[in-house]
Amino acid sequence: MNKVNLLVSFKVDENQKKIIEDSLQTYCYISYLKEIENREKAIEEAEILFVWNPNIEFKNEEYSLMKNVKFIQLFSAGGDHLPVELFKQTFNIAGNVGAFAIPMAEHTVAMALALAKDLKSAHLKLRVGNFDQFKINKSIKGSVCSIIGFGGIGKATANLMRAFGCKIFAINSSGKTDEKVDFIGTTKDLEYVLKNGDFIFISIALNNSTRNLIGSRELNWMKNDAILVNVARGEIIDEAQFYEFLRTHPDFRAGIDAWWIEPFRHGKFQLDHPFLELPNVIGTPHSSAMVPEVIVDATRNGSQNIKAYLTGKNVKGVFNKNDYI
Q1: pLDDT by residue (tens digit) across 246-276?
Q2: How is the chain split into domains, by residue range?
Q3: What is the CATH code for 4-99+293-323?
Q4: Cβ atoms within 10 A of the Cβ of 317, count?
Q5: How confident is the model at residue 191 (pLDDT cuts 50, 70, 90)?
Q6: Which one of 11, 99, 234, 303 is most buried, by most CB atoms within 10 A?
Q7: pTM (2 decimals)?
């Protein structure tokens, strides 16, 4: 086959370069935008793009140069940060599906366990000399784990929680799965899944159909002592309604790793409501994927998806553009 021009637009180290080149140099002429003097020429000639955050990596006027692009592979899993101009083009765009699933599932479960066992409260009590030995915490065995978004992260989370003896209720786009679950449905089944959940995990992609998927009505479907962990995107939950619900339902607990305004997508971190002052909330800075091997694994996973595209095999994570336009 004839080689095609692959342009990597984000900064990579030598280890990442080796992974990309070992996977793709048979099929591609590979160049790195950060190392090229003639940016316009490189973008104009690119047929495949491997990108992370186009809003930082490209200037607005450079999108019109992408006339030869046939496929874009994201380094990230989600595509909600992409400019609409890219979704209006004829080429396909794929997320890096599964690249971050294992560490994110570990983080999800860690937050859920910390909330279930009330570790934050117990620690603070001990600091002031309150040895509250007999306070009852939440049991995990026999619980229902409701997973909203049963892709790579959701499935990895289910595998971990199943080891604790949990039942798995899942929501995905098709209502079908080959995984072992106790219930599988679509967002049409959201009420049933939320009402039954002792633990509710949000790992669904943010797009036009999932923005504000969970508001006051959906929160009130949940059990008063349920635990919700969001490692997806903040905008899946209505921010104001979520804060008010947490403030008025002290037995309900939340782990928040994904926020509404974050540096990667918005250039800053901002909270319009003081979530972190609530005693029933644990927060982390969207760091659920950050383990030592994550960048290497994501580079390899994305490179293999590009290879699948070039060799006519199944390409994972192609976005439905209508969900983003």
Answers
A1: 999 999 999 999 999 999 989 999 999 999 9
A2: 4-99+293-323, 101-283
A3: 3.40.50.720
A4: 23
A5: very high
A6: 99
A7: 0.92
